[in-house]
Design goal:
about 325 residues, alpha/beta, 6-stranded mixed β-sheet, 5-stranded mixed β-sheet, elongated
């Protein structure tokens, strides 16, 4: 992905002609505006004044004779001509950045930017240790994490790679395990809640209890599934609190107050189990699933992404 116009200035006379008085620097600034979604965000990314960004875009539009961006007081969007221009030049700049990153890599340092599109489920405990190792080894790489739980076209979204579970992986992508190979879904409640309401001993008893549940982006609640005599049983408890999956890691706070039983990943609950702030519910019936996977296009893998893949391969042996 393109990050800094300085990377391409060395090649300024090799990519584009100077027709219409539009320079490579102008095109670079235009791309950053499109990708950052506004003049101020682009100015922060580039380290230049917002007025210079605005003046550059206006000069380009005057030279080309067409509007490239639609501006409102709150947002900036591309016109058809602007989007067509961005689509045509983005791969060229990306290729140059990849070449520069490879050149830097041969000197023993990886530089550039890595953008990951990830679900909230990997944010609390899977990503932090991996990124800590990555930054320690590659301090010159800037990492941006975009948290989304739905299906995303990572190429169209301008991301280098994504993280999803098996049932949500994009087709035609390379993928590798990231974090634990398997994860358990677990149920837990506070000691105060169980003392007041009793501890359920079967899936049927669970249906008479209050639940803290999560809702998917497209509307349905995440199901509660248990394994009973090798059969998967879906349970419908009495829902008392619904949270968006974008706030997955906040649910434990509500469970600790005694609102109800929560269903989440077991690895998120280990600290509470050890401290006694939450208690396992029906632990012999918790189902398992494959862990998350890092996925990315097979072509145009940047040096920062290759370096991150190496970190993930070293850290994916946990079971």
């Amino acid at each position: 992905m393109f990050s800094f116009p300085e990377t391409v200035r060395v090649f300024s006379n090799t990519l584009f002609s100077m027709q219409n008085n539009v320079s490579n620097d102008d095109l670079a600034i235009f791309l950053v505006v499109v990708r950052e979604g506004g003049f101020r965000a682009a100015s922060r990314r580039l380290g230049i004044a917002p007025s210079k960004v605005s003046t550059t875009i206006s000069r380009m539009e005057a030279s080309l004779g067409v509007p490239l961006l639609r501006r409102t007081t709150r947002s900036v969007a591309t016109t058809d001509a602007g989007q067509a221009l961005a689509d045509r030049i983005a791969p060229l700049f990306a290729g140059l950045e990849e070449a520069c990153a490879e050149a830097a890599d041969t000197a023993g340092r990886v530089r550039g930017r890595l953008t990951l599109n990830v679900p909230g489920a990997v944010m609390p405990d899977i990503l932090p240790p991996l990124l800590s190792k990555f930054h320690a080894r590659h301090p010159d790489v800037e990492v941006e994490i975009v948290v989304e739980n739905g299906l995303v076209d990572i190429v169209k979204a301008g991301c280098d790679a994504g993280i999803r579970y098996d049932d949500a992986l994009e087709k035609d992508m390379v993928s590798i395990p990231i974090g634990p190979r398997t994860q358990q879904s677990a149920l837990a409640a506070s000691p105060a809640y169980l003392e007041a309401r009793g501890t359920p001993r079967s899936p049927e008893e669970l249906t008479r209890h209050d639940a803290i549940r999560y809702r998917l982006p497209d509307g349905p609640l995440l199901p509660w599934s248990l394994v009973d005599d090798f059969r998967t049983v879906t349970v419908q408890p009495a829902t008392r609190l619904i949270l968006s999956v974008n706030a997955l890691d906040t649910g434990l706070r509500y469970a600790r107050t005694g609102i109800g039983i929560i269903g989440t990943f077991r690895n998120w609950l280990e600290e509470d189990f050890a401290a006694g702030t939450l208690v396992p519910v029906l632990p012999n019936m918790w189902p398992s699933r494959n862990g998350p996977r890092l996925y990315y296009p097979s072509r145009f893998t940047t040096a920062p992404l290759r370096a991150f893949i190496e970190i993930c391969r070293c850290g994916s042996d946990r079971v």
